[in-house]
Design brief:
Layout: H1 2-17, H2 19-38, E1 40-41, E2 50-51, H3 58-70, H4 78-95, H5 103-116, H6 119-140, H7 148-228, H8 233-258, H9 280-289, E3 294-298, H10 306-326, E4 333-340, E5 343-350, H11 362-365, H12 384-393, E6 398-403, E7 409-416
Parallel strand pairs: 3-4
Antiparallel strand pairs: 1-2, 4-5, 5-7, 6-7
Helix pairs in contact: 2-3, 3-4, 4-5, 4-6, 5-6, 5-7, 6-7, 7-8, 7-10, 9-10, 10-12
């Protein structure tokens, strides 16, 4: 039984893959059915039809053969095949008595048209075929017009139209479901790619913030150590100690950030929280140790959402890094973080003139603090300002950066305290989008 069913399934698949062979087989089976039906004489109303009571005429066999041959092209030319088979069936009803069942081929052709066209076309063509053949059978047949054979023509052609329309509707429904499933799959893949891209951008932003800040401090302290190594070795040792502390801090933050790239199940997953305003004092101390006087005014630092807290910390870190690198000697910085209604305002001011001279450095033309560590002013090509603005914009806030009247630079960020709808309050959401270095 299993062998029989598997053989039938293979034959079905082969016929589905070779539609012309399937149509030729169907045409042959239809011809056999029509010839067998032509040997049957209709009953007299008191008994069933009698098989072998009559023999088909050669002309009827010729018409049945033509109608069956036309069915081979039913997929390629459905309308033409229907017209040919309907015309042959009408000729049979007009010229032969009793007629041979040539109408069988018309039923199959009408089903094909209904299954491959739209519903209005099915209605028009179906009604025309049903009415024409039924009228030919009633007018030219030897039996009374109300005989069951005449109404059988109407019933079979109507059934073919209904069955073809139902098959077409089901095929369209299945195709729509398949298309929606494929579109949903594409949407999920695109969403996954988008999330991966946003996570990469966020990690790139954090890496930039960490590396730019600490490497700038290491560079400054190493320069100090090299300058005073011979004359004041104690100060050189202190500078090298700051270099060691800055490099250790950079390594720790890099370990936490890069740890986000680990696969699930990897050992030593990162557990340290992202930095925030709670450690702002330690951040400011590194700049003070590097020779940049910084005054801080920070309120409600522990009551900000995690995403806002991280964004404020990164803005201060980026701005102070640029002040240290570009404001020049003798510069001072002021940092304030205050809560104003439903927003938190972060402001970083400095009074520097630029390390390359008035009117030539980043301070003069477009700013250090807003320009990214070392490269965002007119003299450089980095994207620190873009990074800060994107980090703030990701939370729905705004950032402005520009020179101050009388000298210096100002960075001002306004962050909404409440996270936007649909965004979880977790570290890292502030850096979900935007260009990076």
């Amino acid at each position: 039984m299993t062998t029989l069913s598997s053989g039938f399934a293979r034959a079905r698949r082969w016929l589905r893959d070779h539609p012309l062979a399937f149509d030729a087989t169907l045409a042959f089976c239809t011809l056999v059915a029509m010839i067998c039906g032509s040997f049957t004489a209709p009953g007299d109303g008191h008994g069933p039809p009698a098989f072998g009571a009559r023999t088909p005429e050669p002309f009827s066999v010729f018409l049945m053969t033509l109608a069956a041959a036309a069915l081979v092209l039913r997929r390629r030319r459905p309308m033409q095949v229907l017209a040919v088979t309907a015309a042959l069936a009408a000729v049979e009803y007009v010229l032969m008595d009793p007629p041979a069942p040539v109408v069988m081929s018309t039923v199959i052709a009408l089903y094909t048209v209904a299954s491959r066209t739209d519903r209005p076309t099915t209605w028009r063509v179906g009604l025309l075929t049903m009415g024409g053949l039924t009228a030919a059978a009633m007018v030219f047949g030897a039996t009374p017009w109300y005989s069951q054979e005449n109404f059988g023509v109407f019933a079979w052609t109507g059934l073919a139209s209904a069955a073809g329309d139902a098959v077409r509707s089901r095929r369209a429904f299945v195709d729509a479901i398949r298309e929606r499933a494929e579109r949903a799959e594409r949407t999920r893949e695109e969403e996954a790619r988008r999330r991966v891209a946003e996570e990469r951008l966020r990690i790139a932003r954090d890496l930039h913030d960490v590396v730019a800040h600490h490497i700038a401090l290491v560079n400054v302290q190493a320069g100090v150590a090299a300058h005073v190594m011979d004359k004041r070795p104690d100060q050189a040792k202190e500078a090298l100690a700051h270099v060691r502390d800055a490099s250790r801090s950079a390594l720790n933050e890099l370990r936490v950030t890069v740890g986000l790239l680990r696969q699930q199940g990897d050992p030593e997953a990162p557990t340290e929280p992202a930095p925030g305003l709670a450690v702002l004092g330690e951040l400011v101390a590194t700049f003070r140790n590097a020779g940049l006087p910084v005054e801080v005014a920070c309120a409600d630092r522990d009551r900000l959402p995690a995403a806002v807290d991280l964004a404020a910390y990164r803005v201060v870190q980026e701005a102070l890094t640029n002040v240290r690198k570009h404001a020049g000697t003798g510069a001072r910085a002021e940092v304030s973080v205050v809560r104003v209604g439903a927003t938190a305002e972060v402001t970083v001011l400095d009074n520097g003139r630029g390390s390359t001279g008035p009117g030539t450095g980043p301070h003069a033309g477009g700013g250090p603090a807003g320009g990214g560590p070392g490269d965002d002013g007119p003299a450089g090509g980095g994207h620190g300002l873009v990074g800060m603005r994107e980090r703030v914009s990701a939370l729905g806030g705004t950032l402005s950066a520009g020179p101050r009247y009388g000298g210096g630079f100002r960075v001002h960020a306004i962050l909404p305290v409440e996270a936007r709808t649909g965004e979880p309050e977790r570290p890292g959401t502030a850096g979900g989008t935007g260009l990076r270095r």
